[in-house]
Amino acid sequence: MDVIIQKIHQLTPSIRAFELVSANGTPLPTFEAGAHIDVHLKNGLTRQYSLSNSCSERHRYVIGVLHDANSRGGSRCIHTEYHEGDLLQIGEPRNLFKIHPETKQAILFAGGIGITPILSMAYRLKSARIPFELHYFVRSHDMIAFYGNLTEHFGSNIHFHIQDQPGTGCDMSQALHQNTPDKHLYVCGPTGFMEFVTNSAIQAGWQTEQLHQEHFVAQLADTSNNEAFTIEVKGTDRQIKVLAHQTATQALIEHGFDVPISCEQGICGTCITRVIEGTPEHRDVFMTDEEHALNNQFTPCCSRAKSKKLVIEL
Ligand code: FES
Fold first, then answer.
1. Looking at the Swiss-Prot or TrEMBL record, what is one Pfam family this protein matches (predicted)?
2. Does the C-beta of 264 come closer than 6 Å to ligand 1?
3. Mean pLDDT, consecutive 10-residue segments, the chain of 314 residues?
4. Does some domain include residue 55?
5. Cα(263) to centroid(ligand 1), Å
6. Cβ 147 under 6 angstroms from ligand 1
7. Residue 205 is part of which domain span?
8. Is 197 in the same domain as 114?
9. Is 221 part of any domain?
């Protein structure tokens, strides 16, 4: 759908918030806390950004975008080529990071740009009167995004942990000491940060069902031992060779097949494809271990094959 960038706010030296409103004046589709949208950029890339505002709002979506020094072209494009008043194409909200329906208490951890979905969750928990605390980790005070919103709406619930400010560190054992089964933990941020938080929680006795995390960037798989394999597309005679240096989507698109892709990192699930024969080598973080074990679908943007050939259905 088309939206207009109504306002751009410079939140930190490297993070901007974009307020998006409907281009035709109708209310925007509803969303749940933790949801993200696909943003289709003018340079042809599609990127996912979490919605940060309250899910009770229908007149706008707010996304926060980090101008990433290692940008693969997405964040650089939106920071440099889009201005207030510009039109933007987005997809409808989707949610891979939902608040568990049994949540009666919550603890939220955000690292850096990971505050974006966590902020929306905080609004939701507050409106549902679910007790929560929010721990926000940043390198320095000027890196705190949405500072005004956080202090205005969640004063006593929020704890800022600022790396260059002595005395603001987080005592994880204290923060995690209470883990009744109805308490859920939500974490979003860099991969190492999320691992640190979830490992700390497991050591403190939390169950994996209580832990929920959002992946912005997938851990890079080791591709040095990639081997070529063949894909047969059901209903065609075509045998597509996927070379060691290629992804399956690259090979399929090169041969004229239409495969929807978005994150190209195994995060979003857009490219999930049915596998009829053969054994995939799963490299995504989208599907569960149980879904991987079924071996009846795979994410061709990053996953490969353990067998010499996969027969897929497009
Ligand atoms: Fe996102 Fe494949 S394009 S998982």
1. Fer2
2. yes
3. 97 96 96 93 86 97 89 84 96 91 97 95 98 96 96 94 92 92 95 91 94 72 83 92 94 92 80 96 85 94 95 94
4. yes
5. 5
6. no
7. 105-214
8. yes
9. no
